[in-house]
Each structure stands twice: as C-alpha cells, then as structure tokens.
Amino acid sequence: MKLLALMTALALGAATPSVTILLREQAWMPDARARAFLEEPAECLASRERAVEIGRALFRSPAMLGGPAARAGLSCNACHSGGRRNPHFMLPELTNRAGAADVTSEWSSKVRGDGIVNPLDIPDLSGVTRRETFGRARDPSLEHFVHGVVVEEFQGPEPQAELTASIMAYLRALDEGECARGMAPVTLTSATDDVRRAVAAADGADAETARVVLLAAQDAMGRLVERLPAQRFARERRAFEGLSREIGAMRTADDVGVAMATALPGWRARFDAVAARVARRERQTYFNERTLARALRQP
Ligand code: HEC
User: Fold this and answer.
1) 16 CB contacts (<8 Å, ≥6 apart)?
2) Ligand 1 centroid to residue 122 C-alpha, Å
C-alpha cells in the first residue's frame, strides 16, 4: 500500500517530502485535519436491494472512472461523499477552492478540457432524481448526464447498461432515503461493511457485473488496509492482502459464479476473524483521531 500511496503522490505531483502520505484521500484533501478523514456526510439510503448495493459499490470505486482520476484513486464518492458533498475536496489539479471541482479540466478529460480553471461547487446528490435538469449545461436526462461524467469527464470505460442502471438505482435510493443531515463516523466497522456489502452485491450478479463489483470490493479492502499502521499491523495487513488476492482469483475465474459459491463461505469466515483481531486494537489504527493526527504529524 505504501507503494500505491507513493505512486499516487508521484502521479499527482502534489506531495512534498515533508508530507506523510498515509491515505489516498490526502491527495484530494491535502490540508485537512485528521478528523476530516474520520467522518463523512451521512448517507441516506432508502433501500438495500441488489441494484442499489451494486450502484453503491461502483460509486465508491475508482474503476468507474478512467485516466489520471482513477489512478489517483478518485471515485464519485471522493467528491460526492456519502452521496452528498465533500466540503474538503481540494485536489490542486481540479480546483483552487475547497468543496469545488473543475468539470472541464484537461487533467481529467481529453474531450471536455477548456483550458481555464473554473471550478463549480460540488452539489449534494440527495434529491437529485427530482431535479429537472442536471449540471451547469442543464442536461434534461440524468442518465445521459451520468454517462457523460463517466466517459467524457473522467475517461472511464464505456459502462455496460447494467452498471449504469445500478448507479441510477443508487441515486434514486439516495433521493428517497431520509436521515439526519449530520456527519457519520468512518470506522473500522464502516470500512469492513463496505467490503462485505460489495462482496454480497457481487454474489449472485451476472458474471460481467460481478467482476466489476469484485474489483470494487478489492479497492475497498485497499482503503481498509491503508488505515492499519504498517509495522504494528503487519500480520493483519498480510492477511487482508491475501484475502484480497483471493477475491482477485474469483474475479478472473472462468466461471465467476461457481468460484464465488465455492470460495465465499470460507472467505467470509476468515475476513471476519481478521476484522475481529483488528477491532481489539482499533485505537492503534488510523480510524482513531489521535493515532492518525500523530502519524500525520499534526499537533
Ligand atoms: C472531481 C469531483 C467530482 C467527481 C469525481 C464526480 N463529480 Fe459529480 N459533480 C461534480 C461537480 C463539480 C458537479 C456540478 C457540475 C455542473 O454543475 O455541471 C457535479 C454534478 C453531478 C450531478 C448533477 C447534480 C445536479 O444537481 O445537477 C450528478 C448526478 C453527479 N455529479 C453524479 C456523479 C457521479 C455518478 C459520479 C461518478 C461516476 C460523479 N458525479 C463524480 C463533481 C464531481
């Protein structure tokens, strides 16, 4: 994971030697305090049906986006955190003020770049399916708008119909969901749940969809492993990395459905066991504000 963080830093050219890079989010939240990495706007989901869960996993996965954005680990959720908005978003390539992003930048897009820095406020997506037009260009079709975000703005691969439909299902469920408008903590439990939910959504999906969602699950495991200090949690990191490789093997199996049916019960039991081991020492992980602040050398 250290290597990934380093590659991210190099790809973005943003890191100076004095900054300790521990979490990929630091690339787009360079000045944020430790606390900002430990909470995100509360996600208000009305449903947990399979399409919504698939959409949720994709929304959090860089695999939906292409080009430099994906390499940096950006996902829809980096900007629209919890389906809302990330007030700390400050990726230097895309904005000169926090909570905004330039959706017509050369950095992320070959076709949309306009050569000027003109970031727009990142909108909250709750209630989005009730709006009549989308984005500054007033696109009347939400599906067309989202397709444009993926393929044109971020050079993502052309998504299959099933994937677009799942993202739409997620956006609709966000709209109908209700909860307090506060912040929700990012914890070991929320991070392990992200992995479990992605794996569950892949289990039983059609083969092509399952492959993309399993990749999202592997990415979620990468985010989890980053939160474990390398030396103190060497054993647990190795265990999670092994479990992630097993997901990789299922993803590339000839028959992904059979591979999941065979391997997942044992995989789940081992995943839960490692998670339980980490839970006993959660205070020593970067899910803890003091531990994270100290590691980031923030007073
Ligand atoms: C780099 C930050 C960033 C990322 C990543 C991003 N968005 Fe956005 N999004 C924005 C900004 C800024 C706008 C406002 C654009 C505009 O007004 O034209 C926006 C607008 C939208 C809107 C229209 C909302 C409205 O009220 O008009 C939708 C829907 C949306 N994004 C969905 C997505 C999805 C789905 C993804 C992932 C595939 C994604 N976004 C990735 C920053 C981002």
Assistant:
1) none
2) 7
pLDDT of the residue at 109: 77
What is the distance between the alpha carbons of residues 38 and 187, in angstroms, rounded to a whole number? 7
Residue 284 in contact with residue 232, Cβ under 8 Å?
A: yes
Question: Shortest CA distance to 4 belongs to which of 86, 70, 79, 57?
Answer: 70
What's the token pair of residue 78? 């980096």
**What are 103-144's pLDDT values in tens digits?**
888 878 777 777 777 899 999 998 898 999 999 889 999 999
Residue 135 CA to residue 104 CA, distance in Å, equals 12
Cα–Cα nearest to 186, from 274, 292, 30: 292
CB 241 within 8 A of CB 226: no
Q: Please give all residues whose beta carbon lies within 6 A of any atom in ligand 1, as ranges.
A: 64, 74, 76, 78-80, 94, 101, 103, 120, 122-123, 125, 128, 131, 134-137, 142, 145-146, 149-150, 167
d(CA 76, CA 34): 22
171 CB burial (10 A radius; 0-12, 13-18, 19+): buried
Residue 114 has a pLDDT of 79
Looking at ligand 1, which residue's alpha carbon is closest to its atom 20? 135
Encode pLDDT of 177-207 as tens digits: 777 678 999 999 999 999 999 999 999 899 9
